[in-house]
Design brief:
This protein has 123 residues and is mainly β. It has a single domain, classed as HesB-like domain (Hypothetical Protein Aq_1857, Chain: A, Sandwich). Helix content is 14%, strand content 41%. The chain contains two helices and nine strands, in the order βαββββαββββ. The strands form three sheets. It has a four-stranded mixed sheet. A hairpin with a 2-residue loop joins strand 4 and strand 5. One of its GO terms (cellular component) is cytosol. GO terms for molecular function: 2 iron, 2 sulfur cluster binding. It comes from Biostraticola tofi. Pfam families: Fe-S_biosyn. This is FeS assembly scaffold SufA.
């Protein structure tokens, strides 16, 4: 196998489109931070998961990580580890009602397919 044309990839030197928060997502994140004074926002990452390959992971942020990228709308902050960007760059985070449930929804242009239950996605 010849690897003459292999290019290196640098997370720090890449130009990212970024993430967008919908008005509803920003409102929900602000609501959560108002309920917990130690919370500074939400962190969105990815992990290997499910039948499609990757799953989204959301956690409360109480301690800042200087390596995170920060996306903000109307005072709501979404923190994203640089290592997650190749999988979720360009994603819009929304907060929607589906039936009786309210959930964060990921509109990820990089996702080529999702599993039947919607818990994981593949590139």
């Amino acid at each position: 196998m010849q690897l003459d044309n292999v290019e290196s990839f640098s997370l720090e030197e890449n130009s990212w489109q970024g993430l967008r928060l919908s008005e509803n997502a920003a409102k929900q994140i602000r609501h959560l931070t108002e309920q917990n004074n130690a919370m500074k926002g939400l962190r969105l990452g990815v992990k290997p998961s499910g039948c499609a390959g990757f799953g989204y992971v959301m956690n409360m942020v109480t301690e800042l990580d200087p390596a995170d990228l920060v996306y903000e709308r109307d005072g709501a902050r979404l923190y994203v580890p640089l290592t997650a960007m190749p999988f979720i760059d360009g994603t819009e985070l929304d907060y929607v009602q589906e039936g009786l449930n309210h959930i964060f929804k990921f509109n990820n242009p990089k996702a080529q397919h999702a599993c039947g239950c919607g818990e994981s996605f593949g590139l």
